[in-house]
Specification:
480 residues
């Protein structure tokens, strides 16, 4: 982790000091305006978009993430940090010295630091909480645990809920654990469950920062969320019931049904992390901005909580959870490459959506946001399509009053974008940050999970696509 922190610091100062247009030379007010604006406008990309060839590093990284663990596992496990950084460096070099757009790099760096601060703090704080469930692993018990995880993900985030429950979920199913147990956990707890509040998933939080009312999503999509959760849990129950009946060995252990929790003080740390999410100058005017630094008070608090919660954690809880930093290390290194290499891909998406914004329907917003959220970071994808949807009405996403006005228009567009950005994050391992963390923790527990392609072909495509298609047909087809 020390090497990773050094990397972030060097990247920060190289972006700021060695850019063709030194950021410190600009007026502070201009920098704040840039920070609050859509990064796609920083280089007038609607007139001069980046080269389509710059998408190649992103495609290469995705292909290596997909094929590395399958075909050259030893090489990949030892070199993925170098590969991710090397491919990301190609994009950094292009934006600094060829495309002359250092502000996009700075904006992405800010997003990455916020992303990794939240994931790290939730990972470490929840790692100090040991939950023991002395209950038989029945299909109904699993359904109830997954449903509980999906609900609380709206209060502590998909990352917090995933890190809190994945280990007790594995322990409860230790006698008959199968890959599908973990896959459905990713589907529900790590993704779909967090679709009701801005705390639940990053794209909804970005919408909240732009001006979307905190309770808008839950009041408009709760019925879609509930139907989707019920459908996915029903499929899981059928699969799990079949596995339960075909189990050859007899589990004659007596269960008390008790739930034991160690490290309860870490719930306080989780509360501090959730509160700190709102400590942004765009949300609370009294919060000071640390610009031009690529982080703020929120990130400082999150990293501090991660440090303190680990140093003061219940050692028995850490040992019981087999806690180590490998999962967050893997996410940190892979996503630093993903965040960097996806910049041109996202800007090209923004260019196309704004170019054809008037022709876009709710169908296209749903499938476009969903498909791209499966392979790109769903937060900026959400913002790009939200900006395009507002453009249909002549509104600007960077104008707070315009965002409020947009809420009074036909809600179908915002509903389609919000649902797709969150739900489709379950389609791949890289669709959402918690997916990789759950995968890493499960594999360290000895569970053999499918490869990147295996996950898509065997699970997400045959299970989720029919459900997501039904959701589209019932709520979005032919509307807008």
């Amino acid at each position: 982790m020390k090497k990773f922190l050094i990397l972030v610091i060097l990247f920060s100062f190289s972006t700021i000091y060695f850019s063709p247009t030194n950021i410190f030379a600009n007026n502070l007010n201009e920098k704040i305006e840039v920070k609050q604006s859509d990064h796609s406008s920083e280089h007038n990309i609607f007139e001069n978009p980046p080269s389509p060839y710059m998408v190649i590093p992103f495609i290469v990284l995705l292909l290596m993430i997909a094929t590395g663990p399958l075909f050259y596992r030893h090489f990949w496990e030892h070199n993925y940090p170098k590969i991710s950084i090397a491919l990301g460096s190609i994009t950094v070099f292009y934006y600094l010295f060829i495309f002359n757009d250092p502000l996009s790099l700075l904006h992405t760096l800010e997003e990455y630091i916020s992303f990794i601060a939240l994931l790290t703090s939730l990972f470490v704080a929840s790692g100090g909480i040991l939950i023991k469930i002395d209950r038989k692993s029945t299909p109904l018990a699993n359904v109830l645990l997954l449903l509980f995880g999906g609900v609380i993900s709206n209060f502590i985030g998909t990352t917090g809920a995933s890190m809190l429950l994945i280990r007790p979920y594995i322990r409860m199913n230790r006698n008959r654990i199968k890959p599908y147990h973990i896959i459905f956990f990713i589907f529900i707890v790590s993704n779909i469950g967090g679709g009701l509040t801005p705390i639940g998933d990053p794209p909804l939080f970005l919408g909240f920062l732009k001006g979307i009312d905190f309770f808008w999503v839950v009041t408009h999509v709760w019925h879609i969320w509930l139907l989707t959760i019920v459908l996915v849990l029903t499929v899981f129950y059928l699969i799990d019931s079949n596995n339960y009946k075909s189990k050859s060995e007899i589990d004659d252990k007596e269960y008390t049904g008790r739930i034991e929790i160690k490290g309860k003080k870490n719930f306080l740390y989780l509360l501090i992390i959730i509160i700190s999410v709102f400590l942004d100058p765009a949300v609370l005017s009294f919060v000071p901005s640390l610009h031009p630094l690529p982080f703020g008070i929120r990130e400082i608090i999150m990293f501090s909580v991660a440090f303190i919660s680990y140093r003061r954690a219940d050692k028995e809880a850490l040992k019981g959870n087999e806690f180590d930093f490998e999962p967050i290390k893997e996410v940190a290194f892979l996503f630093v490459g993903i965040f960097a290499t996806m910049i041109p891909a996202l800007q090209l998406v923004a260019y196309e959506t704004h170019k054809f914004g008037e022709k876009l329907t709710a169908d296209i917003f749903y499938w476009g946001t969903g498909i791209l959220s499966s392979i790109l970071d769903n937060a900026p994808t959400y913002l790009n399509f939200l900006s395009a949807a507002m453009g249909k009405f002549g509104l600007n996403i960077d104008n707070f009053q315009h965002v409020k006005e947009f809420e009074t228009h036909d809600p179908i567009y915002l509903m389609a974008i919000s649902v797709a950005a969150v739900f489709f994050g379950a389609m791949t391992y890289i669709g959402n940050g918690p997916n990789f963390m759950v995968k890493s923790i499960s594999e360290s527990s000895g569970i053999k999970l499918p490869s990147f392609f295996g996950y898509v072909v065997k699970y997400s495509f045959p299970i989720l696509i029919p459900i997501f298609t039904l959701i589209w047909f019932l709520f979005f087809y032919g509307r807008g």
